[in-house]
Amino acid sequence: MKALWRSARRRVSDLSSWDDPADNGDVAIALTLLLVLLVAALVLVGVSAVLPDDEGHRPWTGLREGWAARRAARSGHDADAAGTPGTGADAASAGDRELVLADPVDVSLAELLRSTVERGDAYVRVDELATGLQRVTERAQERTSGLLQHVRRG
Questions:
Q1: Window from 15-24, 39-48, 70-79, 125-134 with minimum mean pLDDT
Q2: What domain count does the chain have?
Q3: Cα(first)–Cα(last) distance of the chain, in Å?
Q4: Domain end call among 61, 77, 101
Q5: d(Cα 151, Cα 139) in Å, to the nearest integer?
Q6: Would you say 78 and 90 are in contact if contact means Cβ atoms under 8 Å apart?
Q7: Are residues 113 and 95 in the same domain?
């Protein structure tokens, strides 16, 4: 075992030039940057898990409640029996439980698109777009007509 350890240590020392003092500074800088990036990533994940989102829900709490609801749904009990805080008379939690218990539905793409289409005004109003383009075209022609005459005169 000692021989294996010595050979591994020798291979590592051959790969890295720890004996060269100039390289030690580079390694220290690289390790410091790596440590700073790791701490920044941990802070970012921690803050995003603690702060509420735009709707006021906390992601960590939502994850725990969803996990408890899923476990309760699989075991056949409701989420209140699992002892999860924030569930019960809450309408959002009831909707979440219904989604957990719902069976998947197989529909065609055409059916899905038909059921999700929005009736009403389109995003692009063709009349307004055509009017705007007409005005821009007229202004461009007015501004370039004098320029074209000047270029033709030479």
A1: 15-24
A2: 2
A3: 93
A4: 101
A5: 19
A6: no
A7: no
